[in-house]
Amino acid sequence: MYSCCKKRWTLSRWLVGHLRLNNHQENEIDDLEMQVMRYKPEGIDELVRNTKFTKKELQIMYRGFKQECPTGLVNEDAFKEIYAQFFPQGDSSAYAHYVFNVFDADHNGTISFEEFVIGLSVLSRGSLNEKLMWAFKLYDINGDGYITKEEMLDIVKAIYDMMGKYADPPISENAPGDHVERVFQKMDKNRDGVVTIDEFMETCKNDENITKSMSVFDTIL
Q1: Could you give the 3-state DSSP secondary structure of residue 95?
Q2: Does the pLDDT at position 82 exceed 50?
Q3: H/E segment holding residue 46
Q4: Buried residues in 3-36 as b, exposed as e (16+ CB within 10 A)
Q5: Contact, 96 vs 82, CB < 8 A?
Q6: What is the pLDDT of residues 38-49, one digit of tens each?
Q7: For position 1, what pLDDT does the model report?
């Protein structure tokens, strides 16, 4: 994951340089930089308490973060460009949007260093429960505490779109819907049409096939 992050900040720098070819966009970027110039991350000691990274690891990550992203913030467009680089064979924009929303904990349209390392800590060093809770947030698109079949289908379709038409083995047009029907039926224990966090956690922990299907996060996050 961290090697992916280094590419991310390099890409962000490229995007800024590319946008500056347009004077109007250049002014917008300069305005943004002025707005976030006062932005400072919370204390390193607090981040040590809130993540599974050491103080030295956080200091190294922050230096790299600031070097490649001087504003200290990453917007959704830059985030989508990252995924486009890693999945050129498909359309990753929808999936990147959903992942961005989970990282952007305060929903202000940008990912700060704190949000980045807190999310990264869960995905790279979190317990199974922590990772499953993160995954639940991803599928719970509207954040109401429940996963509907429509929300699950939106995420699964986004994953299939990202993997592309040239996936091996080839993906059929009905594959996302068929996959969601099978998984949702297993998760919705009381047949009320929604999946709760408890149902989600229990099913993922006890069903080996679903657990394996969840491992897709190891390669696309």
Answers
A1: helix
A2: yes
A3: helix 44-50
A4: eebeebbebbeebbeeeeeeeeeeeebeeeeeee
A5: yes
A6: 445 568 889 999
A7: 33
